[in-house]
Design brief:
Elements (H helix, E strand, L loop, with lengths): L12 H16 L22 E2 L5 H14 L8 E2 L5 H7 L24 H20 L1
Antiparallel strand pairs: 1-2
Helix pairs in contact: 2-4
């Protein structure tokens, strides 16, 4: 059996693995067969630890401002990345990173179609341009 686990930014792959292993072995201890033949629990494919960028971080504030300027309302800012590749620059390059776009990039992981209407597409272009100009030129 294979399982997948996403976890909070305050945990590590090893801490979650250890906790899950203890839980499963304890859960199976009263089973007549599994108590004598405990399952082999091992790590499979690992993508890495999740990332979190605090809301007061400069890049998060910039993204909030540009989205508000373009869309005329405060959009939802999701600065926690549990399984998105956006976490990699933050965790391994110490570069604050924020995912933007429909479902914060979660289109492929939540059975959503990868489609946005023309208005959202153009808004996305304006947001990207605004971020580049404000981050690089100010």
């Amino acid at each position: 059996i294979t399982g997948r686990v996403n976890f909070g930014y305050d945990e590590t792959v090893q801490s979650v693995f250890d906790e899950l292993k203890v839980f499963l072995l304890d859960y199976f201890k009263d089973d007549p067969w599994l108590s004598k033949h405990p399952p082999l629990i091992e790590k499979g494919v690992m993508k890495g630890n999740p990332a979190y960028v605090p809301p007061e971080t400069e890049v998060v504030k910039l993204v909030e401002r540009v989205i508000t300027d373009v869309k005329q309302f405060d959009d939802f800012i999701y600065q926690y990345h549990g399984s998105s590749e956006v976490r990699l620059p933050n965790n391994y390059g110490h570069t604050p990173t924020v995912g933007i776009g429909p479902n914060c990039g979660g289109l492929g992981t939540r059975d959503q179609i990868e489609w946005v209407d023309l208005e959202d597409y153009i808004a996305g272009i304006k947001i990207a341009a605004g971020l580049i100009i404000d981050w690089c030129c100010e």
